[in-house]
Amino acid sequence: MDVPGLAVSLSFSLGACVGGGWWCLRRLREARYLLDTPTSKIRSAAQGYVELYGILHGLPDAVITGPLTGKPCVWWRFRIEELQSDGKKSRWRVVESGTSEAWLRLSDNTGECLINPRGAEVRPATRQSWQGSMRHPLRIEPSGGFFGFLTGGKQYRYIEERLHAGEPLYAIGEFRSLGGGRQGLDASAAQMAVIREWKGDFAGLLQRFDADNNGQLDEQEWNRVRLAAQLEAEDRHRKASTQPTQNHMVCPEESQPFILSSHGEDEIARRFRWQAAGGAILCLVGALATVYLLQVVGLV
Predict the structure, then answer these.
(1) Pair 154, 144: CB distance under 8 Å
(2) Which residues of 176-196 are buried (b: 16+ CB within 10 A; e: fewer)?
């Protein structure tokens, strides 16, 4: 009996069973989130987990272009792969990749919302893929003739995905509104935040509140610090409340899906269900393979 080989086979079959089951349940759960969350208008959206539809716009004074094509956009993701061969088979290996972290501006007929795409599953409609002999297609690099011989005649594949201004966007994530008098004041937390900020410059704190110049703050002086911090916190809150409302969408703190897509929720949910079916099949195959291997060794 090949014990090491059997152990490897069991690990693969169990991994396929567990991984496929986990992927199936995850995709089904995410599809349910998408279908159960009602679509909100930006102006009237509740604070928390919401679903929005709108049109993308560029940020003022922001010039964003795709790193591989140079085409203007509001968000991009790219991947560069190199064709490698060991004499028997060839495969593409990722040698460089990147994702835009620029904020997105989404609007509907009621307002605007800024979206931080960090942590989101982004599904853009635009995807370009092509091949070439240069590592970076927009740079001037020797790639042919004698120079191509020196570089080994390498072959690269480029993939770039983009979101463009004027395109529709489906977004589901954590919605927050700041300013406009929406935020209540947590007096204690705001006071402590100001004190922590002041402690960062302790010399300045002593200069302001150390009345007897002994290099320390006694209880009476700390009481003055707390009172000043409370007044400062209230003043900051009052000023923030007079600012126009700013709507933001960010990655949820809980394990809820954060998705930005050029496609609607029905299409995304359908894809998630197909992926869940694939995970279920993988789980079943892994389970059958595990039972078979256990039967081989007489444990079942």
Answers:
(1) no
(2) bbeeeeeeeeeeeebbeebbe
Residue by residue, DSSP assigns 201-248 as: THHHHHHHH-TT-SSS--HHHHHHHHHHHHHHHHHHHHHHHTSPPEEE
Contact 257, 119 (CB under 8 A): no
User: Measured between alpha carbons, how far is 90 from 112 in angstroms, rounded to an integer?
Assistant: 48
Q: How far apart are CA 250 and CA 51, in angstroms?
A: 12
Check: CB of residue 250 under 8 Å from CB of residue 177.
Answer: no
CA-derived radius of gyration, the chain: 28
In this structure, are residues 158 and 132 in contact, taking their beta carbons and an 8 Å threshold? yes
CA separation for the pair 217, 194 (Å, rounded): 17
Residues paired with 163 in a beta bridge: 75
Query: Per residue in 78-107, pLDDT tens?
Result: 999 999 987 788 899 999 999 999 999 999
Domain ranges, ordered by start, for the chain: 3-179+244-294, 181-243
Quote the crossing angle between the two packed helices 3-36 and 265-296, to the nearest 10°.
160
The two beta strands, 75-85 and 90-99, are antiparallel
Q: Pairing between strand 246-250 and 112-115?
A: parallel
SS3 76: strand
User: The pTM is what?
Assistant: 0.69
